[in-house]
Amino acid sequence: MTDQAAAIQGDDSLSEADRLGLYRVLLSRRDVRGQFLPDPIPDEVLARILVAAHHAPSVGFMQPWSFILVRSPEVRERIKNAFAKANDEAARMFEGEAQSTYRSLKLEGILESPINICVTCDRDRAGPVVLGRTHIPTMDLYSTVCAVENLWLAARAEGLGLGWVSIISEPALKEILGLPDHVVPVAYLCLGRVSHFFAQPELETKGWRKRLPLADLVSLDRWEGPRDEDLGKALTEAQDKAERGEIV
Amino acid sequence: MTDQAAAIQGDDSLSEADRLGLYRVLLSRRDVRGQFLPDPIPDEVLARILVAAHHAPSVGFMQPWSFILVRSPEVRERIKNAFAKANDEAARMFEGEAQSTYRSLKLEGILESPINICVTCDRDRAGPVVLGRTHIPTMDLYSTVCAVENLWLAARAEGLGLGWVSIISEPALKEILGLPDHVVPVAYLCLGRVSHFFAQPELETKGWRKRLPLADLVSLDRWEGPRDEDLGKALTEAQDKAERGEIV
């Protein structure tokens, strides 16, 4: 038997239940900030979620990610202070009513969640020349983001909430976590059980921005190219269904 | 009823079947290059996959993505030529046996797949100041990558293969697709039915790189910080299960 033949799965089909499960998880995933419960996460659950992240696609099979699990209250206190400083700077970038709304939003759950995870990208993990990163040098960062999204979806499937804290200075984050120069902190995440999940994104509910009509974002063959009318109808219908929680 | 109360779903729990479905899709997702069939993709299926992408997390609910569906044989021929040029440059960056192996790999399915999709990021979509992008300016690119990963997983759940073509010059891609300066082509994807999915990543089977032991990539509280022995065991066990196709 050749290597290639050995690598072909006997049955590679997924069931209708698997298909529905994927969509249900995708559509009910939320960026959680304010609903965390302090309950610890069992090791087996955390392990499954991290395996999901580790099975993300990566350029040249580079697997550039590492996972720093931040449990220490002292470390989290320092992260929280770095967030608070950045968040105050950020608020002042908005004017008038937007600034008041911004200041009213809860944008992280660093101390309330039982665990934080920093997902990093080691740019040197596979040497200087990486298959698939030769022309788009950010591909390893993009691979790491795929791991974050896998982790997020697996967390939701396990009934756990996750929030991505992006309002923080990268140099501060690197200093607090002791990252060497060649390691980028791609995502700082808060993970934990939650009292409930919202049906819609909070920024949508609070009027910050609306969900865009998907059909407007799809064109053929070039930027702002022609539209396919039948596909446009299918897109609008599928989006409406998804927003009613009915997709499939 | 307050807005917030209205936004809470009556039942936000997912079933065990949903949880298993998510893991099955995640673990059987592959980067497909050589197994595409030419069959067209029905509009309803394509619409569901794009809805999955559109429900990705995005910084400040910015939804910076657009989707250019490339069907035109002429446009795809130009993309294929841009790939071939970059791929030849890339091959010459590897030495000795690695170069021969590199040249033997099939790294794209641009012409064989029924449709290509360029997923772009419009950096101006929500104005110059974006909630959550104030301190990490790449957050909108990262949001777009989350949309790519959602799209990829939904494709797999629908039985479709997807491959990410990253060996291409970004300026060439921008020129061929007519992207304005403020729009980044984050991912160029090939999508379609496939003859089969491989059980393992091709680069692993062909000996390019091995899958890393997950337990080595997880530490506590700081870069190369302490390890939790019990969690380490759980990680190794979960990874072994996943590689045997048994996760859950």
TrEMBL record, chains A, B:
CDD domains: BluB (cd02145). Residues 27-192 form the Nitroreductase domain. Residues 226-248 are annotated as: Disordered. It is an enzyme of class 1 (oxidoreductase). Homooctamer. Belongs to the BluB family. This is 5,6-dimethylbenzimidazole synthase. Keywords: Cobalamin biosynthesis, Flavoprotein, FMN, NAD, NADP, Nucleotide-binding, Oxidoreductase. PANTHER family: IODOTYROSINE DEIODINASE 1 (PTHR23026:SF90), NADPH NITROREDUCTASE (PTHR23026). It holds the Pfam family Nitroreductase. Its EC number is 1.13.11.79.
